[in-house]
Design a protein that fits this description.
Blueprint: E1 2-3, E2 6-7, E3 15-20, H1 30-44, E4 47-58, E5 61-69, E6 74-75, E7 78-80, H2 87-99, E8 119-129, E9 149-157, E10 162-167, E11 170-176, H3 177-180, H4 184-187, H5 189-192, H6 194-199
Parallel strand pairs: 3-10, 4-9
Antiparallel strand pairs: 1-2, 4-5, 4-7, 5-6, 5-11, 8-9
Length: 200
């Protein structure tokens, strides 16, 4: 796909990966995640999350960059926003934290070139968590006046070349888009909806 200024995505072989320190998940189980959601909601209200749909091509076919955590579940790069962060600034920060190149002498600091060349584009969908449970919906149910979380999926594009620093406890996969189609059983409903979102 191209726009007025050139391609929106580039071949997978243009990108490189290096390893960085482990980035442990904040929640080690579903009950822990729900408990933390309840605590956050009590403190700051609705939790806002942002995830990136990053497209590259392999053999001319679109692939999505996906993180696999501890050889188990898959997730899109991104995460929770601080209450005062905007969607775009927060998403750039999360991408930089997860896949940016760490500074060799300052633990926790990420070199700017690891994340300033992400381009956050359109919001492709918003998912809602009406209750303190695991279910997210691609709409806000009419009876729900106090949702517990909103999760926005943004299209994020890359420069022609880039190096990713992938935490040791994660793997960065490029999964062909057809793998997600009608495959909610394996990847979940958000991934299964990506082919529809990108077809627009």
């Amino acid at each position: 796909m191209v726009n007025a200024t050139g391609p929106l995505w580039y071949p997978l072989q243009n990108y490189f990966m290096i390893e960085r320190e482990n980035q442990p998940e904040e929640d080690h189980s579903v009950p822990t995640r729900i408990k933390r959601l309840e605590e956050q909601y009590a403190e700051t209200g609705i939790r806002r999350s942002v995830d990136a749909i990053i497209v590259t091509t392999h053999r001319g076919f679109p692939h999505i960059l996906v993180l696999q955590v501890a050889n188990a579940f898959y997730k899109l790069p991104g995460g929770y926003l601080d209450p005062t962060e905007s969607d775009r600034v927060g998403l750039l920060t999360r991408l930089n934290e997860q896949l940016g190149i760490p500074h060799p002498t300052k633990p926790g600091y990420v070199l700017p070139q690891g994340g300033e060349d992400w381009v956050v584009r359109d919001c492709l969908s918003t998912w809602w968590r009406p209750n303190f449970d695991t279910f997210l919906y691609p709409y806000l149910p009419a009876h729900c006046t106090t949702p517990k979380e909103s999760k926005k999926l943004y299209l994020v594009t890359l420069p022609p070349q880039k190096t990713f620093a992938v935490p040791l406890n994660m793997k960065l996969h490029a999964i062909p888009i057809f793998e997600f189609y009608d495959n909610a059983a394996r990847y979940g409903p958000q991934f299964a909806g990506i082919p529809y979102l990108l077809s627009k």
